[in-house]
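Design job #97: recover the sequence.
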């Protein structure tokens, strides 16, 4: 799925662009040219850079290259404080990346459960 305005591609499950709120369209409908020549895909979005960096570090230790894009680096000026940090991986690494991300998120849940038992 692709945002026709920002020209970013998103994984399944995201139906609206986190940046501009536009409904995402399928790659078949999209007639423009993606701005990521190496086929990067957004796997998660964050509001805090440090969260994105935590994921990036985990992905890298799992051998998956990732990159963080925030509005500050963008050539499009952001609107107000609504800055979204995007975490991207290469499409060829997507399956590995999803596994690692699922792992991170299930570990988080384990920690929370442990705390509840104390
Ligand atoms: Zn957009």
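Job complete. Output follows.
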């Amino acid at each position: 799925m692709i945002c026709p305005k920002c020209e970013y591609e998103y994984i399944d499950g995201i139906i609206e662009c986190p940046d501009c709120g536009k409904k995402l369209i399928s790659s078949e409908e999209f007639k423009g040219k993606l701005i990521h020549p190496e086929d990067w895909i957004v796997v998660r979005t964050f509001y805090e850079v440090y969260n994105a960096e935590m994921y990036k570090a985990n992905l890298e230790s799992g051998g998956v290259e990732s990159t963080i894009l925030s509005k500050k680096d963008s050539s499009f000026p952001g609107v107000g404080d609504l800055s979204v940090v995007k975490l991207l991986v290469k499409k060829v690494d997507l399956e590995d990346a999803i596994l690692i991300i699922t792992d991170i998120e299930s570990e988080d849940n384990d920690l929370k459960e442990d705390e509840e038992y104390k």
